[in-house]
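Let's practice the habit of predicting before peeking. Look at the sequence and jot down your guess about where helices and strands might fall. Then scroll down.
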Amino acid sequence: MFEGLFQPMHLLVIAGLALVLFGPRRLPELGKGLGEGIRGFKSAMQGGDPARVVREQQTSTSITESAQTLESK
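Done guessing? Here is the structure:
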């Protein structure tokens, strides 16, 4: 049923729709959030330190906010 679901042309259409829906400025933020979520999930599944995951997320958020501030100037 799902055979050949993610062919290159399908992935290009999905990427195009994401670009149209969210715009080029919002896509990096969405990707970063998705990556942090996956990283946190993996850490939780492996019994990692949840405080470390929170610290990493706060650090990356402050870096992103700093970059956005510089970009807007």
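How did you do? The longest helix spans residues 50-72.
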